Amino acid sequence: MTERALNDIGPDRSLLLVDDDEPFVRRLARAMEKRGFETETAESVAQGKAIGTARPPAYAVVDLRLEDGNGLEVVELLREKRPDARIVVLTGYGAIATAVSAVKMGATDYLAKPADANDITAALLSVGDAPPPPENPMSADRVRWEHIQRVYELCDRNVSETARRLNMHRRTLQRILAKRSPR
């Protein structure tokens, strides 16, 4: 690790990683330790909140969807306990609405999986710089599909209610839901 990179991290190198994918969180912890962070891991909202309350970290990477709840609960608690913490929300379900929610809750950045340790480090250490445009942005079809999936989930997977809210015919919605997600 270069001296410059260590200086970018700052004197408090504590990093909390919250993700329910155990192999992923172990690999990420090792990679972040090689970059100079002092990592601690949690695999649930409850563990993340417990660690955040006991030892609020300077940095955090929090998965959005965890088995026991929403990672935004951890973001909110971390923001209360340590307002200067740099928090990145990481998720496999990238959607504009969840990105907005994460930032409103206090996240510094929002990354869609798969994100590697370099992407995460850059997001944690960026200060006011706008990130570069994505190399491979979502297509318009994918953005539409993500929106439909989000509304469908918010309607408790009720096709008729989702179709009504989207002002869409129920059978059209059923055909869209039966297909695989676009790339």
Automatic annotation (TrEMBL):
InterPro entries: ActR_PrrA_rreg, Bact_response_regulator, CheY-like_superfamily, Sig_transdc_resp-reg_receiver. GO terms for molecular function: DNA binding. Transmembrane segments: none annotated. Keywords: Activator, DNA-binding, Phosphoprotein, Transcription, Transcription regulation, Two-component regulatory system. Residues 14-128 form the Response regulatory domain. The modification 4-aspartylphosphate is found at D63. CDD domains: REC_RegA-like. Member of the two-component regulatory system RegB/RegA. Involved in transactivating anaerobic expression of the photosynthetic apparatus. It is a transcriptional regulator that is responsible for activating expression of the puf, puh, and puc operons in response to a decrease in oxygen tension. PANTHER family: PROTEIN PILG, STRESS RESPONSE REGULATOR PROTEIN 1. This is Photosynthetic apparatus regulatory protein RegA. The lineage of its organism: Bacteria, Pseudomonadati, Pseudomonadota, Alphaproteobacteria, Rhodobacterales.
